[in-house]
Every structure is written in structure tokens, then in C-alpha cells.
């Protein structure tokens, strides 16, 4: 079987809907599956924010060592750690970029996104020729669709109780927007995400210096249970994961060797079962499938 057939076989066994845009940089060979279909990005939408930051660094609008003061009003629920830190902390711009990408910190994300503006980030994508990346919502706005209260400064016990009160059908109904495969959600196509990552690799976001800065951030990723899952120990992967509800995503660059690099965007939607045990097993199987696809690409282009 060729690579595409092997990937299709993995997808079929998983029972999930996959969007795949795989591009081997040196040969130009591609595997494209549902590549032009919109998928919710979840936290993969932080890659376009990273790119916008790199452009602003290049333009001198911000500097890596600029310090911005953390306010309670900035805070979002985890993922991340800044929500637990005291108001008044002054992380650098580089710190915020690192937090946003490597532990998917939602507070750092909205600090950057609110400073730049959603419209500006989307316009940057359009200037790069990427028409199918849409960011109508901040992290806070995404959470407002599914959480009874988005203020993380309240007592944690109270917030858990309110979430229990809103559990069930009402909560799932509210979640429909964040799972929508439409431009009213933070969505992208696998193909456009792979194209964006290729531009980073090629030094076009906006130049070699600041593209390498962005790549260095992506290479520090701490959430490595999808694309890197079955890769040989020590394999470098510059990537960003995304998770919300039944969405499981990962997108980045596999450094197969010095002369072989694979860009892979995996966007996944699946139907989670209600039974907790079955849910855990389902997550395991979906993430296994994502890792298997990455390993197939690695072996094919060694």
C-alpha cells in the first residue's frame, strides 16, 4: 500500500472524521484528505496569533523583552498557568508567546489576541493568501458558549457547582457553535494550516529571523501525545495541538532528518460516548490514530 492508502486505513479503523494535509517539503509529495473542509481549530488557532506576533516583532511594534502587566480581567480558565498567578506579574512578550504555544495557555493567548485584534490577525492571514482561516472569537468568547461563568476569579467550588447545574442537554446545545464547521467559529481547512506552517518554515512570516523565532517557540511544545506519539525518541516536532469537546487537532513540522521534513495538519472530529470508560478509550484510540499517521509519514520519508 502507498502512504495515502495506509493513512486511509488508519482513519477507517478510528471511526473519526479526519482532515489531513500532509506535505513533504523536499519532494513536494502530498497526501490530502478532506483538505478543503472546515474544522474547528480549537487551540491550533494560536498558530496564526504566533505568526501575527512575529510580524509585529519584525515591524518593531513590539519587542521580545517588552513586559506586559497581568490583570485579573485578562485571566481565562486553563489550559495554562497564568490564571493561577497573582495580578501584577509582568511576563515578557516572548514569555506570553511561549506560554500560549507550549502549554496552550489561554490567558496568554487572549492577552496577545486582544492586543493585536482578531481582525488584524485574520487580515494578516489574507495578506498571506490564506482565505480559509477564520477567527471570530477569543478564548473567552469560545468559553462563553459552553461555560456558565467565564470569570476564573470566583471561588473554584462555586464554578464547579454552576457547571454541574448546567450539565447535560443544555450545555451540549450551547456547545454547537464551537463545534460548527462554519466561518462563525474559529475554523480553518487542513490545507490552509499546512500552507501557513510551510511559510513559517520557509522564512516568510515575515523573514528568516522572525520565522526562526516562531519555529523555536513551536519546537518547545510540551503537549506531545498526538503527532509525536510514536515517533522515535529525539525526533524534533515544531507543532501546536488543539482540544475542545470532541475536537482533537495537531499541526506542525516533523524533522525526519536534516534532509527530510514533513508538514502535517491533522484535524479530527469524533462522537464521544457518554460512558466515562468508553470515553477514555475513545480518546486513546483517536490519539493513537493521529500518532500512527505521523509515524507512517516519518517512515515513508526517512
Describe this structure as you would to a colleague:
This protein has 302 residues and is an alpha+beta fold. It is built from twelve helices and eight strands. Strands 2-1-8-7-6 form a five-stranded antiparallel beta sheet, with helices on both faces. Strands 3-5-4 form a three-stranded antiparallel beta sheet. α1 (3-14) runs antiparallel to α12 (276-300), α2 (46-59) packs across α4 (106-116) and α3 (93-102) packs across α4 (106-116). The protein is globular and about 55 Å long.
How are the elements arranged and paired?
Elements: H1 3-14, E1 17-24, E2 30-33, E3 39-40, H2 46-59, H3 93-102, H4 106-116, H5 118-127, E4 133-134, H6 139-144, H7 156-165, H8 169-174, H9 176-179, E5 187-188, H10 190-201, H11 208-219, E6 236-244, E7 247-257, E8 260-269, H12 276-300
Antiparallel strand pairs: 1-2, 1-8, 3-5, 4-5, 6-7, 7-8
Helix pairs in contact: 1-12, 2-4, 2-5, 2-11, 3-4
Shape: globular
* CA-CA gap between termini: 17 Å
Mean pLDDT: 94
Sheet bearing the most strands, described? 5 strands, antiparallel
Low-pLDDT regions:
none
**What is the highest CATH level, the class?**
Alpha Beta
Question: Using DSSP, what is the number of strands?
Answer: 8
The CATH homologous superfamily is named: DD-peptidase/beta-lactamase superfamily
Q: Report the order of strands and helices.
A: HEEEHHHHEHHHHEHHEEEH
Into which percent range does the helicity of residues fall?
40-55%
The radius of gyration computed from the alpha-carbon positions, rounded to a whole number of angstroms, is 19 Å
| Order of the strands making up the biggest sheet | 2-1-8-7-6
Output the CATH topology.
Beta-lactamase
CATH architecture: 3-Layer(aba) Sandwich
